[in-house]
Amino acid sequence: MKVKRDLQFDAIVIGGGIAGLQSALDLGDQGYKVAVVDKDATIGGKMIRLSKVFPTLDCASCITTPKMSSAAHHENITLFTYCTLGALDREKPDQVVAQLRQEPRYVDPEKCIGCRKCEYGCPVYVEDDEQGGFNMRKAIYIPFSNAIPQLPVLDVENCSLCGKCAKVCPTDAIRYDMEPEDFTITAKTAVLATGFELSPMEQKPQYGLAKLQNVVSSMQMERLLAPHGPYNRVLRPSDGKEPDSIAYVQCAGSRDESLGIPYCSRVCCMYAIKQAMLLSGALPLADITIYYMDIRAFGKGYEQFYQNAKAMGIEFVKAKVAKITQGDNQTARLRYEDQEGNGGVMEREHDLVILSLGMVPQWDPAGICSVNCGQDGFIQSILPKIAPTVTNIDGVYTAGVAAGPKDIVDTITEAGAAAMEAANYIKGLT
Ligand SMILES: Cc1cc2nc3c(=O)[nH]c(=O)nc-3n(C[C@H](O)[C@H](O)[C@H](O)COP(=O)(O)OP(=O)(O)OC[C@H]3O[C@@H](n4cnc5c(N)ncnc54)[C@H](O)[C@@H]3O)c2cc1C
Q: Does the chain have fewer CB atoms within 10 Å around its N or its C terminus?
């Protein structure tokens, strides 16, 4: 393994989602040199993978790509993608040291021109997680068309080593012998913006995710609704039929002690309402039902958004769904306790069911960083009311969903606050 350099920056941001990018841009604009580290092959986090965003229904890609591109072209920001974080801690008042590993892409970044000829030439097809697993990608691939950087990754697990990518590469950039490279970054301050993943549903087999083809996650539905989605329209996965009846199951991975996730993930009501509105535009004849425990429309303009959805004819049923099983004609059969109307246990079949999954932390700092986390696993603030981005480590801040579930508006606001705290910390050193 090659040992790389020790790089110096004013600030290091861990996570290149919308939170990390906003903190980096706010620091970079003030003249600080910033390193953004992401474990993914591209920056952009979850937001770049969404269809449209509540409450404005802006196209997610249209508002995220400019931020990604501003960070990539900023004279004070350096991106480190496909890098894993081995350790991060404060060593001196003016030194946070991060141990990093550049994972091999098996493509020379200096030579690659992003022409994708390697991808077109590759004969291996692999299920594409970026498209919810609904279509295929190649074994060497750029994650999606507006990924930054435009550099492919060779997926060694699935590569057949046929050599076709190397043969068609016009710049001789394929490096099958590439190795991981370790390096360190020393900075004065750090922002932890490691975001979230969806709540794990393996512990809830009664909801049928992965077992029933027409039960999908909310992130899969984002892809089905996206302009560059897998089918370019909404079709149910089992047979490609346009669904006539669609259901949302709320709190499918939140407020659920049995999953160890007792908290509310805050965005699921709103994203389900958003998706339901988009679906009623895409499939005007479809019946859309949202099974909910409580609707939490917490932000500015969100209650109005909810009322608009009701006015559009989306049905809201106050009920807790107990079980989803295979129905007739490939439908999913919901068994639920109706908490309004006639009450009692009811059953209904839908062509397509979406589970509104909650948020869990994407990063566990144990053994890597001494930052404190709460019982829910999210990074804890030591001053949650008056300085919510401040952690237990001097000059190390947190932003976005890394610190707890939140929507994009709150994520951006918090990222700006973390950048301001970080800038003040640097100023205080001199
Ligand atoms: C289905 C769905 C729909 C949504 N729709 C909306 C909407 O319409 N409107 C709205 O306001 N909000 C919406 N949200 C919420 C929104 O996605 C989040 O608020 C936002 O993405 C949070 O950004 P983030 O940067 O904090 O986290 P993320 O987007 O998760 O980014 C975290 C980044 O950190 C990186 N990372 C993680 N761990 C490490 C590590 N150890 N080292 C290096 N890098 C690391 C990840 O690779 C990722 O790039 C939705 C959420 C879901 C699940």
A: C
Round to whole Å and give the CA distance between 163 and 102.
23
C-alpha 402 to ligand 1 mean position (Å): 9
Q: Which CATH class for the 104-179 domain? A: alpha beta
Residue with tokens 């006539």: 244
222 lines ligand 1 (CB under 6 A): yes
CA separation, residue 217 to residues 259, 278, 307 (Å): 16, 16, 24
Confidence of residue 249 (pLDDT cuts 50, 70, 90): very high
Query: What is the Å distance from ligand 1's center to 48 Cα?
Result: 9
Same fold, 1-102+180-195+362-430 and 104-179: no
3-state SS assignment for residue 290: strand
Q: In the chain, where are the structural domains located?
A: 1-102+180-195+362-430, 104-179, 199-359
Find the helix packing angle between 268-282 and 218-225, rounded to 10°.
Answer: 30
> Is residue 401 pLDDT above 80, yes or no?
yes
What would the pLDDT profile of 355-392 be if each residue is shown by its tens digit? 999 999 999 999 999 999 999 999 999 999 999 999 99
